[in-house]
Amino acid sequence: MQEYRGGDVILRRSEDRPTVELRGPNAKAAKFGDHFCARCNNERSQPFDLAYDRFIDWFLSNENQIEDTGLLPLEEIFDDWREGQNLVNCYYAKHAGCRIADVGYRVPDSLREYLDGVGEPVGFAFNFELSGFLAGLSAILKENPTLDGTSGNLGLGGVHGQLTHEGGPAVELVSWSSYHALQVYWQWSTDYPRSWTNLLGPVAELPRIEPELRDQLLRNSRNPDLQPGTPDPTSKEQV
Questions:
Q1: Cα separation, 42 vs 66, whole angstroms
Q2: Which residues constitute the domain of residue 177?
Q3: Mean of the pLDDT values across residues 42-47?
Q4: Is residue 239 a part of any domain in this protein?
């Protein structure tokens, strides 16, 4: 991805874990544990990864338009939007499975079967949305790249689980990830009889969460005398 080409990648973690400097996105500290055999990682899941690369490259090339409209034209991104949407959803399902395994929970069987091309990931819900705050952060970083040459942002939430009263297996797992303005929340629950996602074509319409924050944060970053949330008196919107 483009922002990794200018220099080192900085991995900032929670306060109780030190900041790590990486030489690139393939550094070990930026990866999940080894939950796939080489064949599965290289053959079975490669279509998911390739579809995600195509999806996110299009997103990065058109992110202002997407942030303004909330529309993702899967029919324009993929030759076959039905296959494309399924492969991108598989990518995020694989991501969720790796997160679950990394923290020591058992990956639900329905997710394993879905990645093998069988059925749907029963119990899972994937919600794609556009964050105005993250869009503003991305816009600021584009105008002010780090000393290491990076200008993007990627977020990863903790995995939270709910266990049975007897302390048995998890009955609910939730987490999120983000890249630039795109934020994906996922949840697995034994109460869900089906699966759900809002990344559906041919044109997916994503919720825009506080979209006004993008321009507000960007204006404030250009004028350090403004307090956070203060309208910029020089902005045309205030005239």
A1: 31
A2: 2-207
A3: 80
A4: no
